[in-house]
Write the structure tokens for this entry.
Amino acid sequence: MLLVLTVSNGLHFLVAWEVFAVCGYFLITLDGNKRAVRTAGWLYLATSHAGTLCLCVFFGLLAVKTGGWELGPLRGDASLAPLFWLALAGFGIKAGIFPLHIWLPSAHANAPSHVSALMSGVAIKMGVYGIVRFSGWLPVPAAAGWVVMALGATSALLGIAFALAQNDFKRLLAYCSVENIGIIMIGIGGALLARSHGDAAWGRLALAGALLHVWNHGAFKALLFFGAGSVLHATGTREMSRLGGLWQRMPWTAGLFALGAVAVVGLPPLNGFVSEWLIYLGLFDAVAGKQASAWVAMPAAILLGLAGALALATFAKAGAMIFLGAARTKSAALAHECGNWMRGPMLALAGICLGLGLVPTLVWPALTSAAGAWQPVQSGGLSDCGNGEADGQRAGYPHHSGPGIVPAAVIGLTIGETHAAKPSAGGAPAMAEVPLATLGWVQLGLAGLMAAAGTLLWRKVMANNLRRGPTWDCGYAAPAARMQYTSGSFAGLASAWFSWILRPLRTMRRVHGHFPAEAIYQERVPETVLDMVILPLAARGMQVSAAVRRLQHGHLSFYILYVVVALAALASLVLLENVP
Amino acid sequence: MTSLLLILVPSIAAALAAAWPDSRTRPWFLPGAGVIHCVLAWWLFCAPPTVEAGSWLGFDPLARAVLPVVSLLFLVCACYGVTYLRIRSERPNRIFITALLAVLGLLSAGLQARHLGLLWIFTEAVTLAAVPLLHFNGTPRAFEATWKYLLVGGTGIALSLLGSLCLGYASLYGGGDGQLTFMALMAQGGGLSRPWVLIAWVLLLVGYGTKMGLAPMHTCKPDAYGEAPVMVGAMLAGGVTSVAFTAILRVRAVVGAAGAGGVADHTLLAIGLFSILVAALFLLGTRDFKRMLAYSSVEHMGILTLGAALGRAGVAAALFHVWSNSLTKGALFLSAGNIRRAAGSQTMDAVRGMSVLTPRSAAIFVTGIFAVTACPPFGPFFSELKVLRAALETGHWAITAMFLGCLLLAFFGLSRVAFGIVDGRPHPAAKAGGTRFVETAGVIVPPLVLLALSLWLGLFTPRMVTEAWAAAVTQLYPN
Amino acid sequence: MERWAGINHQNLNLLIGLAIGLNLLALSTSRLPMLIRSMSAQGVILGVMPILMEPHADWRVLLVALATIGGKGLFIPGMLRRAMRAVRIDRELEPLIGFVPSLLLGAGGTIAAFALTPLLPLLAEHADSLLVPGALATVITGLILLIGRTEAVAQVCGYIILDNGIYLFGLLLIRAMPLMVEAGVLLDLTVGVFILGIIVDRIQRTFDSLDTRILTTLHE
Amino acid sequence: MKLLLDLILRIDCWLLLAPLLPGIINKVKAWVAGRRGPPVLQLYYDLARLWKKGVVMSTLASPAFVILPALTWVALLSAAMLMPLGPLGAGLTFRGDALVLLYLLALGRFCTVWAAMETGSAFEGMGTVREVSYAVLAEAALIAAVLSLSVQSGSIALATMLGPPLGAGAVLLAAGLFIILLAENCRVPFDDPNTHLELAMIHEAMVLDHSGPPLAAILHGASMKLLLFAVLLVQAVLPIGQLQPLAAAAVLAAGVLGVTVAVGLVESLWARFAFRRVPLLLTTAFLLCLFALLVAWKGGPA
């Protein structure tokens, strides 16, 4: 995988890419005895292969146009621009941008949780890496920025809408990855847009935000998947409607999951906010610029806000259904806390989330240099308040690798590689002024204040005498665990607004008559794109295949007839070309 | 002279094997002849002899670009065959071994044939020599497969004879002196009668295409590959098809010289793409993993044909693909044979969980499937990428898109079947079967070697091999 | 000399006409012995042709002629008769293409062959010969039999008639093609048909029938 | 030193003045209804009493149940610190603080929601669902409002965004922000803070189980939020930045008072909406803000 990041030859890139994809398959199917796991793994493999073929064409065309497999900045040749679409499709499948995400939910849900963490944290980022890398190296078509941003906004909104409607918490996290990729794509789209509008400074801002979000998402999503993994390990179910009240048995997991949830929703003072904030700044600048790009940036900003609010609902639901309230089933009531070996990595990841949130300036130099390397500029100085404080990260990049390699290192950092970053020597990028240091102080202050106020209130409450009693529940005499809001009912209100795309499948039996039978209400959200588009298409393909296979019926006479028919067909082809 | 030895050694070995009294030691003729043949072939490969322009037989650049890999494939299959025949000691092996050795000799002859008639004779002879190989198992199914192979193949062969005669008549009509060597025909070039050349081309393409197994003439292929012993399948898929392909290449060169190259390329393109498409559709639904390999072979024959239609770069890529496909397909056939033997069945419905029963063969099989579906870093990936690049260079956008779409479908089909038989829990019946198949070195090492060779070909394509392909292209496109 | 060639030419065309007639006979008959007989007669006729075409009876020409007559006229028909007798079936019961349609098809093919031949560029010496249309008609007949019949014996006959057609065409090149090559081709064909005969025999013994419609176990 | 003093003053200002607003609203409502109503300072009394009381906590809830109200309160207070107060300016101003403010509000919501779900009560679940769902729409409207301010002023710092010259879209924006204010603070017609029909509540349903000091924190936080939105509304539409400091302060105070009275009047004259009509109203607010944005973009100086 690291190979993917470091090669500078198209052929080697493809090799590394595909080997990495195939490894992904074997990781997903580690638990290969279950049919669902195998299906999910195969779906992953198949879509991934489709993406690789796109990339094969991409690199093939690149090689045809440039005459070799060597990669490098080629921004001069405008005829290469249409290739961007191929790269977008190929890398987009890996990244899981919305209509191409079909493999992602089931793969993430069925893989072992640490693998899900790795995939969500790193694997799908390879797609992002590809898009960033090649949009930086190649000229892009004029519409690229618009399309990428539109795709990103769609991914963000629909990804989180699907996440909200899920009952399987790992699927929820997977769809949330679709959302986060969408957020990253919004940032990248902003950068592309800025480039096509004369290299506006806000583009870099959006790109820096996107890259930082790559990093952040890696940290908090891994944390959440680890948390999900320990819940799965403890209770044996992925259905949130069968859980509840786990905080009592697994306080560590609950706390860390809550932390991850705050981070993923993008709330201050954690890291998710910092990157979203940067992307917002880019978008707001774009809108305030009143250029044509504002027409895209404006809806993108609003959709980003919508997605953020939905994410809040989603993770409030996830946290509440899994950890809060009363246990809904026996297995949830008998859960046990994960061991130290599971807790350790979670603590480390939580530390990263906290650290990146409170001291965002740590990564700033790497981000600016990456954004700069993406598009070197001739003029403009780095006007960054936070730059001066980042002296912890001052080792050097190998200079021979050139500026092009820097984005790789930025992503390299996301997976815990101890690369150290330093702004590359080649050209200081013009970055809009960003009070990142101030933001850091605000976040730090906020965290401090929260800790202080929380402690204070707790002490006050203890001093005032804390009593325990049953939940009041408006005086209802016999509250039961089954009366709690379930995952479906929690999401019902908001996901109803998206039923046009979610297309939930309902089974309902109402209470009827004087001696009613048991009433039932079930709702399941399908994989809409997969179930309603891809599978029907696949069924059609299988029909064609079945029809063609019927030709191989075993009757020799017909086989000889086929030979004669082929002869006639080829002869008529030749005739057609030779008769004027 | 050494090039004649390539034909003589297997022929003599075949004669000796036929006369050898002991059926337990007779299989050793296979690797014996294989080793000598392989050494000779690679010696000639490294030090290519000069071939006289008018000679009827010779180790010319095209033979040099194909023969070594066929020889290598035979050697590995022969080694596998020793173990295989020991397992199948209940079947008489005299005719089988004789025929297999004869096939090797005739393949060497067919690849080296530089004369229109001679080429046809050897290709036909290979077809006939393969017949005893197909019904080795002696089951009704095997006879049925043989019957179909013989009649469909025979029809193709008849058409290619008619085509050869037409090409000869084209030369005669154009004032040729009856020298029907390819060099002479190419030298005659525009002097050949165009209508006759075109008629000949269509007939020869269909005829040799039947031997290659291009759709829709592929119909006997799944039956034959499905019922024959696996190393025979490997030799058919890697060896016989190569002879037919070189035959098409040689004829294409003549047609090109006669000024009808464009038409020829269009027909090649059409039938190549059609083969890929049909094979992909078959692969999507097939449930028998040995027949699946046959369809995959149809697909790869389509890729070869496609490459042949794409000019110099395409032909070089296609020759590369001959190598990578032969080696990879060989590994697949041999490992599939192990699985077949261990599971006692060859359909997906009855075979499951082979990663438990035959872990090593299953691993080789799955790796082979990845290799043959053009996953790097194996040979087929690089050769197909070269075909792709050739297609892109010549600006065939729609064809590239179709080609890739079909590759994707083929991947779906192949991976579906492969994982279907490898994963899951084994059938209780297969587990409890009386004589358990043991994965000895004799049945594991050969496919592994082939897979390693495919990997080696992909990662470190030797300069000398690349040069051999380039030389063959120069022979086919002299100007 | 001139006259000799002229007479031979006439005789050759006569023989080819005969062969075409045999084609139609083969297409129309439902009785397998009749089919075999017409096929073997065609083989004998074809075997005589090279002797007529080559005024100087070379020993190699003689060899080719003898091999053709022996193989196609005697040996293979004998083998087929034996196989047929073993299953005690002597007629084609349910052909895929009926006898009248196949006869019409064959006639149509023959007419088309005659109509198309003038379109082909032929050397002057072949222009008024029936070789080319005769060859085409025979090839078409062979293909119709191969496709239309379901008895293995009939299919083998069809294949041999197809070969006969190609052999006829090959006579165009009898001067150009070195005889060694011609002999090799002939040998191949003979061996091929011989193997066909063996397999027919095996099929008869394995399945106790020669109806190829039962040979459809192998399918998708 | 001066900075510290300023900060303390400002905190005091927010802390002390905020509870006045609910009192005023209640007074207005009583006045319209012809009652005497509770004293304006009623909330102060309530807070003081709650602060001294003990706490009953559900057996299902974790300690976070008690701590989270404090975090909500801190989030709201921090948001208040970012809000400029007319001539006084903000406690802290930097590029992008508007977004921080928005997300601090979201943080406050998240903490409240989490605490509500701790109890496992169906009623709290109900309130939570409504809260997070309607917040989605309110968030979109709010972002659109902030965007329009940002377009108008060309800045993303609240200090420069607020107090603009009277723009063409001011009326639209005022209407939009006012609806958002009602929604975010759970006032009629979205929610009825005085009702005791739990089924019909949003915010109140979420805090049903709270008692003692945490409830005090929640109530005080809610009043701060109300003040925050009132200040935002006034500064967003009135040209306070163009006035003399004293006049600006007076206008600001008068504006806030006016908004508060308006809220009281709305509560007196309107009934609570059926829940299915709530999205409609919020969408209206969003569209109002969006139109304000377009007007600011196309109508304002380039």
Summary: Chain D has a mean pLDDT of 89. The CA atoms of residues 117 and 259 of chain D lie 33 Å apart.
